[in-house]
Amino acid sequence: MHILLTLLLSFTATLASASDEKAIKELLINYDKVMTEHKTELVDEVFTKKFLSESGGKEEFIDKIKELPKEKKKSKIKRILESWKKSKIGNMLVAKVKKGVSTKSSSNFVIIEEDGKLKIDGTISDDE
To answer: What would the DSSP string read from start to end of 77-100?
Structure first.
C-alpha cells in the first residue's frame, strides 16, 4: 500500500511539474509578444499587479514598452527556459531564461500565481 501511495504521489508531482513547465513556456511566449512585438493587450496576462504598480502603473509601463525597438517581423530568437524550480520561501517559481540558443547570458524571472495564472513578478538578476 505504501508503494502504491508513493507512486501515486510521485506521478501527481510529475504531472504538476509538467503543467507548471508548460505554463512557464506559454508565459515566456507572451512575454516576448509584449516586449518585442508590443502586444500590450497581454500586459495583464504576463505581469502581476504588484509588478505593474511598482513600475509606475500599467499605463506608464505600456508607454515604456512602446519606447523599446519593435521587431518588424516575428523574431525566430525567442526566450528559452533553461531551468526552473519552486522556491522554498512562499509560493513562487524561479525560472532561468536566456534569449536564443547562442546566448550565454540569462535572466532569473520570479513567477507567481495570480488570478489562477502564472505571471512575472520581477527578476532576481540579469547577466545583461
So the answer is: --EEEEEEEE-SSSSEEEEEEEES
Report pLDDT digits (tens) over 8-31.
444 444 434 667 889 999 999 999
Quick one: 74 exposed, middle or buried, by C-beta within 10 A (0-12, 13-18, 19+)? exposed
Assess contact for 111 and 121: CB atoms under 8 A.
yes
Give the three-class secondary structure for 117: strand
Task: Give 26-41 pLDDT, tens digit per residue.
Answer: 999 999 899 989 999 9
Considering just the CA atoms, what is the radius of gyration of the chain in Å?
A: 17
Q: By three-state DSSP, how is residue 102 classified?
A: coil
Per-residue pLDDT band for 63 (boundaries 50, 70, 90) equals very high
Query: How crowded is residue 114: how many other Cβ atoms within 10 Å of its Cβ?
Result: 16
Q: Where do the domains of the chain lie, and which CATH numbers do they carry?
A: 2-124 (3.10.450)
